Amino acid sequence: MKTNLLSLILLIVVLFSTTTLEAQQLVEKSKHNYVVLTKKVPQLEPIILTAEALKKEDGQNFGDFQIIICGIGIGDITDPEKISDFIEKAEKAGVRIIACGFSLHKFKIDETKVPKEIEVVENGILYNFQLQKQGYISLSL
């Protein structure tokens, strides 16, 4: 009798925790998350405009929007004249700008000159793939 009761309690606990986990995953998947990989700082303008349009379109389903900058144009992020307006627009739009650390090293860009508002990841391409595995919609320019 005790074994049956314990088995029933264990079954209820397992079913409840599984249902809770599935519901939590369903809520997370209902958000639309985006990532754009770009090599040119001037492309930030249309990308940020796109983020703003998607935010309106998606409404409550809008999740996260990230822009990863990598490649030869990465040095432009250290030039305040070229990046400051984009940082401000991105912050207003709720967009995160990410810099590829591999590109910074390859093109000998001083990482201390990267604005504090821009996060640096070790490898931008790998980071992009990791976000895609999490369900992010991805675009490379």
Structure described in brief:
With 141 residues, this protein is of the alpha/beta class. It has helices spanning 2-29, 44-58, 80-93, 101-106, 124-133, and strands spanning 32-38, 62-69, 95-100, 119-121, 137-140.
Jot down its keywords.
Intracellular sulfur oxidation protein, DsrE/DsrF family, five-stranded parallel sheet, 141 residues, DsrEFH-like
Structure description:
With 141 residues, the protein is an alpha/beta fold. It has two domains: 1-30; 32-140, Hypothetical Protein Ychn, Chain: A (3-Layer(aba) Sandwich), CATH 3.40.1260.10. Helices cover 52% and strands 20% of the residues. The protein contains five helices and five strands; from the N terminus they run αβαβαβαβαβ. The chain has helices spanning 2-29, 44-58, 80-93, 101-106, 124-133; strands at residues 32-38, 62-69, 95-100, 119-121, 137-140. A five-stranded parallel sheet has the order 4-3-2-1-5, with helices on both faces. β3, α4 (101-106) and β4 form a beta-alpha-beta unit. α2 (44-58) packs parallel to α3 (80-93). It is globular. The relative contact order is 0.17.
